[in-house]
Amino acid sequence: MGLSLPDELPRLDAEYGVPVNGTLSGLVIGLSLLVGVWALVEALRDRAPGRGHLVGLALVEVALIALLISAAVAVAGGDRPASAATFLGYVITIICLPPLAYVLAKLEPTRWGSVIILVVCLTVPVLVLRLHQTWQVVTSG
Prior knowledge:
Layout: H1 22-44, H2 51-76, H3 84-107, H4 111-136
């Protein structure tokens, strides 16, 4: 007498997709928030972003690239997000944000440069969570 799952329970198969790598997502979110808090402290101290902030943005970008490579491997393996266009839009946006923050912060060597980094570092975790949501939506068909 073997146990079997009822048909009503959701199964984790290709129809549902595979979420974006959780460990890498946590790393990206943690790094981004860490750099964001650091930028907030510098903005409150009325200081422009330093070289360390820019290195922090570079680390966030490298972690994002690793995350998106893992997502690309999942897509190459046959898994698909519920909405490919939405997923691609988030991917393009999320990859462009840290370099854009770097350029804008270099152009604004005041406390507002630190605020720019803060805003981007608060936006990146939101976009990472949205990437997860595009994989978790159940598609019909």
